[in-house]
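Any chance you could type out a protein's amino acid sequence plus the matching backbone structure tokens because I've never seen that pairing?

——
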Amino acid sequence: MNTAHNYTGTFSEILKNYKSCESNQDINKRFEIHSLEWMETQESSWNGEAEKLNRFEVIWIKKGRGRLWVDENNYQVDDSIIYCLAPGHVRKWNAETNIEGYYISFAPEFVWLSEGYSNNLSWLEQYNHEFTPAAMKVNVDLQQELDVIAGKMKWEFSNYFNSRLELLKGLLNIFMIYFSRNLKGPKPDVVQTKEGELARKFMNLLKKNFINQKMVSDYAGQLCVTPNYLNRTIKKITGFTASHHIQQQIILEAKRKAMYSSVSMKEIAYYLGFDNLAHFSKFFKNNSGMSFTDYKKMALRPD
């Protein structure tokens, strides 16, 4: 996978930065679609290795069975299910039978370069800030619709016809709209207000800077608001304060390190910017409900 770009700027800034990067080679670096059958033949982190994602992934299991790990969650995957994973998630996959389906991977800026981004792509913002993957069971009628769209995407990706970029963006957007509106529970929605924009900027900054910036005031200063106003606004939009989101982002990263690496608690604490091991241990227990040692034992316990 490629190094993630900084995508905390405005749409116009992103468009300016990437406007000159529209060659087919650049497109292939920011978007790809393959059959899962093909993915299983590749020597890559797809096959049984944990990988921290720097792009969105859409995994559609049409037929077959396997096990998907996303951060601390473990999913038994069967026929006709689609998962959408966001940058930052740690993903591990093991197939238990022969599988059929599609694997789609795309960088955020690939979608942000779409002219209709601000009006039509609210699903991207929603999934980018989720701590767990979005998942949907696909019924027969929907599978027929998505099969056509995914097949066209794969055809365009494999060939180099005129207007390839525009078609790939459009087809991806259609695919994800179908996915979004068929999810159970609250539908992805971005609040198109000044407060909603502030929340979006905060969440993007947090995902990039949480290791070095742990105070609400750090983010409030960059966003030109007071810490109290930022806390109130983030709670209004998300249901939790800015400080809560900072704490949970740190805890999530600590859990990822505990589950998918062999580093010690001391090394994880240092990586996350804690100079005092006792402070990190107390912080972890207060925000996760158990000690780091107990969590690691539970996380490494065989299913």
